[in-house]
Amino acid sequence: MPVGDIEFPVIGNDALIPVLVVPHILIAAFVIGMSLIAPVSEYLGLVTKQPHYDRFARNAAKFTILIFASGSAIAITFVLMLITLYPVFWSYLQNIMFWALLAEAFMFVGEIILLYAWYNAWDRMAYRKRLHVVFGFMAGLFGLAQQTFINVVGSYMLTPSEAPATNVGATFLNPTFVPLNMHRFVGNLSYVGFLIAGWAAWRYLRSTGENDREYYDWMGHFGLLWGFGFLLLQPIIGYGYLKSIREHNPAAFDYLMVGEKSWLFNLLAIELAVMGVAGVAYFLHRLRFAVRPMPALRGAAAGALGFMAVFGALNAIPADANLVPQIGLVFAGGERTQIPLGDMYPWKYIGLIGMTFAGLFVLALYLRATARGFHWGRSSRWSQYALILVAATVVATMMTMGYARETSRRAEGPGYLINGCITLDQKITPETCPPVTGGSL
Predict the structure, then answer these.
(1) Confidence at 440, pLDDT banded by 50, 70, 90
(2) Quick check: 37 and 53 in contact, CB under 8 A?
(3) Which of 67, 320, 340, 358 is the most exposed place for a label (fewest CB within 10 A)?
(4) C-alpha to C-alpha distance for 254 and 113, rounded to whole angstroms
């Protein structure tokens, strides 16, 4: 059998990889984000002497360790499938990215050791709390470094450097590495924050004890601060990432923004609008339970909620009536029917900037009220449903963005596993591959 001609039964190779990658990415992003948020929470508990922080950090560490094993098993299976089903691609990639993959493996081992040490030493280091917090932060930094080296690989596949493949520095610092790394760092923290809020809301609705209701009410607030706060950075960072793709892989940019897959960004705009409106609505509701009543702040937050809804709706307007042609969702002549308010310039820019400023305004008001404290355990059921909604939406958003980036590889010609170098059917195109040395392959 020729090398690379193995076909996975029933679902095929093309479907098998996303089946493995999607759960792995969701779990890995959770582990990395939580291993950064939980030590911060433990440190805040040390500084403020509020037990909620330490309780959350310890439970988060325990759950992270439990889910870590599942994510690792899926990752190992994924690599095995790449080696088996895509041997030409894997052989080429692992030779170019040897040092990045080796460093990633060491970071992985270090993260495992420190995560388990951090959790297992919780009681033993109760009187050396500052040192224990350091263990937690080190585990988070190892996880962040591991993700950074993987981002080197992922960004290179989409925008390989034009320098020789043996030029390690230029290969690793390829055109989209920095914006992708920033995008995923901020995205992980936002993603985990929204999941924390959603889980807390679920537990709040099921709790009957006063102490548990107060704790989960606080936990929902804590998670949403992380989720919503870092979400506000994504339009700026996302713009920078897309700009890098446009400059160094224009076919992929056009494919996503004005081509067959442009509907993905309309879907992403809807998801951002849901998270933005639901988040602001929760903050507005929570201001009712501030220790010191603030009617003026609530009035301002209510106005910002209206602006958030308007700007979110503006972002979601499509450019034409050709909504999702792949499934036949086309109206009134499709591409021939242009929708003026759906143009990227200036309307989408106005929508994104408006959502960002409205969100920052409400967040500032809410943090001011947070400094004076809230009465916990009194939130309404609908506010908890809002938190569950943002948690479900952020998972869909992660999948949408991941699919958008990976499907952009099909933008030109046969589609590429490594842009301009190895096609989806593992054919090497030496005339356009980055040179191995100063010459060509």
Answers:
(1) very low
(2) no
(3) 340
(4) 44
Helix (H) or strand (E) holding 417: strand 416-418
- Give me the mean pLDDT over the 108-116 stretch: 92
| Closest to 426 in 3D by CA, of 22, 19, 83 | 83
Average pLDDT over residues 271-288: 95
User: Is 23 within 8 Å of 67 (Cβ atoms)?
Assistant: no
Q: Is the model's pLDDT at 2 over the cut of 60?
A: no
Helix, strand or coil, per DSSP, at residue 295 = helix
DSSP conformation letters of 251-271? HHHHHHHTSTTTHHHHHHHHH
For 428, the token pair is: 């090497």
Residue that wins the pLDDT comparison between 432 and 277: 277
Name the range with the highest mean pLDDT among 49-58, 322-331, 340-349.
49-58
Q: For residues 92 and 422, what is the distance between their CA atoms, to the nearest angstrom? A: 9
Query: End-to-end alpha-carbon separation of the chain, Å?
Result: 26
Which residues are CB-contacts of 12 (< 8 A; sequence separation ≥ 6)? none
- CA-only gyration radius of the chain, Å: 23
Distances (CA, A) of 420 to 5, 150, 157, 176, 228: 21, 20, 9, 15, 38
Q: Is the pTM for the entire model greater than 0.85?
A: yes
**What would the 3-class secondary structure string for 321-385 be?**
CEEEHHHCEECCCHHHCECHHHCHHHHHHHHHHHHHHHHHHHHHHHHHHHHHCECCCCCCHHHHH
Specify burial of residue 292 (Cβ count, 10 A radius: 0-12, 13-18, 19+): exposed
Beta bridge partners of 374: 290
Distance CA 233, CA 144 (A): 18
Closest CA to 422 of 148, 165, 102: 165
The β-bridge partners of 329 are 324
Q: Estimate to the nearest angstrom the gap between the alpha carbon of 83 and the chain centroid.
A: 26
What DSSP state is assigned to residue 320?
B
Three-state DSSP at 423 gives strand
| Main-chain phi, psi angles of 321, to 5 degrees | -85, 10
User: 320 has which bridge partners?
Assistant: 338
Residue 289 identity: F
Non-local CB neighbours of 309 within 8 Å, separated by 6+ positions: 273, 277
Report the candidate in 6, 146, 86 with the shortest Cα–Cα distance to residue 409: 86
Position 430 scores a pLDDT of 83
CA gap 104, 93 in Å, rounded: 14
